[in-house]
Each structure stands twice: as structure tokens, then as C-alpha cells.
Amino acid sequence: MRRHAPAASALLCALALAALPAAAQDIGLQLEEIRTLVREKRYPLALESLRLVSRQIQDLRLEAIAPAFPEPPPGWTAAPALSLHDEGDIWSGRLLAQRTYAPAAGSMRLDLLIDLNSPHAPAAALALSPLVLAADPATRAQQIAGQQARVRFVPDTGEGEVRLLLGGGILITARGRGIESAEALVRLVERVDFAFLRAAAGI
Fold first, then answer.
1. Mean pLDDT of successive 10-residue stretches along the chain, which has 203 residues
2. For residue 9, what pLDDT is reported?
3. Which of 150, 175, 172, 178 is nearest to 161 (CA)?
4. What pLDDT, on a 0 to 100 scale, did the predictor assign at position 88?
5. How many CB atoms are located within 10 Å of the residue 158 CB?
6. H or E stretch including 151?
7. DSSP SS3 for 86
8. Alpha carbon 194 to its chain's center
9. Distance between alpha carbon 44 and the CA centroid of its chain, in Å?
10. Which of 14, 30, 114, 121 is deepest in the core (most CB within 10 A)?
């Protein structure tokens, strides 16, 4: 398993942040236009323009954390990271991103989600309690890269899930369909750049 050294992760994060100023400058111009609309009391248009700016900012955040997603293993393909925001999320500090992985042949599919400032973090922590784990025979606790994770696999359906709470409200979830065990999900989560995510958590 290959992981970035802390110095390399910090460099990647710095490079991601360095790409922001030009776009941020464009957003600054748009905000000036919104201020003009407000002064002119054109409130509906100002709100719609502000909504568009919020979406742009969330897109910039997605670009900034995208390097934390692992590259596909040999023989696999991966879609670009995409945002799963709903309309309410664009106004919040939450960032929910997903990347999908699949082998070149076969029906297996793995979805990896990174959820910053996740509202589901408290529930994820509770799900790691011994009582909750004992209530579901398909679920177990497992250490992944030094973090406690919840691993679930249902052989009858070939579906599984790994959930890891990194801290600071960062929830990492891997879901799989058409899999023979949860190991493919565990390996995928292991390859997430945790150091990069911690550095980028405030983005």
C-alpha cells in the first residue's frame, strides 16, 4: 500500500489552494455586482446571483479536496470526483463528494464518499459502539490506518459498506455492489490521503 508522506500531502494541499485565486477574483467581481443589485433593491436577482456564487465556491472546495481520493488500482477505472450537494448544502459548511471506481470487466462498483462537516458524524460515532455492532451480525469493527471503522458485508446480496470517522466531522464512506467480500472497500479506504484531508478540512 502506497501512501503520501506528510510533506508530500502538505505540498499537494498547497498546490490545490494555489489554484484558487483567479476563480476567487471572478467571484469577487460577481459579489460586487450583487451589492449593486441590492442597492438597487433588485432582491430576487441578487438572491439568484448569490446562489450561483455559492455553487461556484462549493465547486472550488471540491477541486481542492479531489487529490485526497485515491487513483484507481491497476485494471480499474474511476470517474472524476463529483459533488452530491443538494440545494440546502450550498449554503452550509458541508462538502459531500463522491468518486466511483469499477474494474475494466465485471459488474463490481465501488463508491467512495468524503463528507466534510458531516451532519451524520454523531450517528457514525454511535454506530461504532459495541451494543450497536452486536445487534447486526453482518457488521464488525476494524482498524483502518489507525482509525476505527465500521465494516458491513452481506454475502447474499454482494453489498457492503465501510464507514470511518476521521475526526473533525470528516466522514469517509465506501459502498460496494457485486463484491465478494468487504476487503475491496477496506483497501480503497486505506488509500484515501487522510493527511491531505486533515489539512484541507477547513476548505
1. 44 42 64 86 86 84 92 93 77 88 89 93 90 91 92 94 90 94 95 90 67
2. 43
3. 175
4. 65
5. 15
6. strand 147-154
7. coil
8. 11
9. 32
10. 114
Cell of 184: 475491496
Which residues sit opposite 143 in a β-bridge?
A: 148
pTM of the model: 0.77
Three cell numbers at 25? Answer: 477574483
Q: How many CB atoms lie within 10 A of CB 100?
A: 17
Cell of 7: 510533506
- What is the total residue count of the chain? 203
Q: Which pLDDT does position 200 carry in this prediction?
A: 78
In sequence order, the β-bridge partners of residue 153 are: 160
Rounded to a whole number of angstroms, the distance between the first and last alpha carbons of the chain is: 27
Smallest Cα–Cα separation from 174: which of 165, 193, 164, 116?
164
Q: What is the pLDDT of residue 203?
A: 61
